[in-house]
TrEMBL record:
Its EC number is 2.4.1.-. GO terms for molecular function: glycosyltransferase activity. GO terms for cellular component: Golgi apparatus. Keywords: Glycoprotein, Glycosyltransferase, Membrane, Signal, Signal-anchor, Transferase, Transmembrane, Transmembrane helix. It is found in: Endomembrane system. Pathway: Glycan metabolism; pectin biosynthesis. PANTHER family: GALACTURONOSYLTRANSFERASE-LIKE 7-RELATED, GLYCOSYLTRANSFERASE 8 DOMAIN-CONTAINING PROTEIN. It is a single-pass type II membrane protein. This is Hexosyltransferase.
């Protein structure tokens, strides 16, 4: 049965590649992307974390040239210093992504995919959240035209609030930076799309940006068929003072790796403090008094589950990471696809470098800008 499941996944990936491949060439944003070749290779320090032991022979390539389609609002000086006048431009689409060495390859691929499929790539502004400001020059070299700003997130801001999780990767302070976007970004930024680093966008991100949040603070695809109770411990559900927080709500699971956030409502509602409150409850409980096990997700669920503006599932085909330890591969959920998300412990760049990819990892590979550097002549 295992070989049959893998064959099914391989056939699905092949069919989807055939379906999507025209979008890489004839999708409307292709009118904005005039050059399909890489104009040079760039060398970077060997400290970039890559699972391949030959990492020193690799480098990030420069992204293809891009420009807006004819009906976009004109932009100028794309890589100038991002002062308030630039960031506050109302025509911009704002996207926030974290940058760190471990997931850098994924972040670069995510940005590349967004630009590749955007009708107005020069109108997309990236807000990169980092704990290492040294990555800014790398991003500027790979994406010379990109509009972006780097924001330092101090790990000490949350280190004392983080409790142990089922996976050590979920305990990294930068995972919690999304909780502080309303504080980190300029006050004029009233809306932002938050995206994880392990995904690619295969549709125009402006469609996601334009979703009506219906007066809600957060919009995201919801999965009400999921067993919501498993995200919290027996102790939480047995204590009505805790579980009562969901009274009068119809809470559903949502993945915090893809969210549209109304930062104005967030600031007015002091939602950062509400999330910190639940982190304190968890931290102070400890041991058998823990109320959840899964890192940064449960506090978001406690505050927002049942109060989320629904977004189509096509914008988060999640769970593609599967389990890298067991080598399990996932298939796509039924329905149309606008965003592929390798949430889970397995990451496509790790599996590709190890020579043991899952079939769907072939859909991530076209956006990967990490490859062999040209040797100087």
């Amino acid at each position: 049965m295992l070989w049959l499941m893998r064959l099914s996944s391989l056939i699905t990936a092949a069919l989807l590649t055939v379906v999507l491949s025209p979008s890489l060439q004839s999708f409307p944003p292709a009118e904005a992307i005039r050059s399909s070749h890489f104009d040079g290779y760039l060398r970077f320090p060997a400290q970039i974390a890559v699972p391949d032991p030959r990492a020193r022979q690799f480098a990030f390539r420069r992204a293809p040239f891009f420009r807006n389609a004819g009906d976009c609002v004109a932009r100028s000086e794309p890589n100038s210093s991002p002062g308030n006048s630039t960031v506050c431009d109302p025509s911009l689409v704002h996207i926030a992504i974290t940058l760190d060495e471990e997931y850098l390859r994924g972040s670069i691929a995510a940005v590349h995919s967004i630009i590749q499929h955007s009708s107005c790539p020069e109108n997309v502004f990236f807000h990169f959240l980092v704990s290492d400001t040294g990555l800014e020059s790398l991003v500027r070299s790979v994406f010379p035209q990109l509009r972006f700003k780097v924001y330092f997130f101090d790990p000490n801001r949350v280190r004392g609030l983080i409790s142990t999780s089922v996976r050590q990767a979920l305990e990294q302070p930068l995972n919690y930076a999304r909780n502080y976007l309303a504080d980190l970004l300029e006050p004029c930024v009233g809306r932002v799309i938050y995206l994880d680093s392990d995904l690619v966008v295969i549709d125009d991100v402006a469609k996601l940006w334009q979703y009506d949040l219906r007066g809600r603070t957060v919009g995201a695809p919801e999965y009400c068929h999921a067993n919501f109770t498993k995200y919290f411990t027996e102790r939480f559900w047995s204590d009505r003072r805790l579980s009562g927080t969901f009274a009068g709500r119809n809470p559903c699971y949502f993945n915090t790796g893809v969210m549209v956030m109304d930062l104005n409502r967030w600031r007015r509602g002091a939602f950062t403090r509400r999330i910190e409150y639940w982190m304190e409850v968890q931290k102070n409980g400890g041991g058998s008094d823990r109320i959840y096990e899964l890192g940064s997700l449960p506090p978001f669920l406690l505050v927002f589950a049942g109060r989320v503006a629904p977004i189509e599932h096509r914008w988060n085909q999640h769970g593609l990471g599967g389990d890298s330890v067991k080598g399990s591969c996932r298939d796509l959920h039924p329905g149309p696809v606008s965003l592929l998300h390798w949430s889970g412990s397995g990451k496509p760049w790790v599996r590709l470098s190890s020579g043991r990819p899952c079939p769907l990892d072939a859909l991530w590979a076209p956006y990967d800008l990490y490859g062999p550097a040209l040797r100087p002549r």
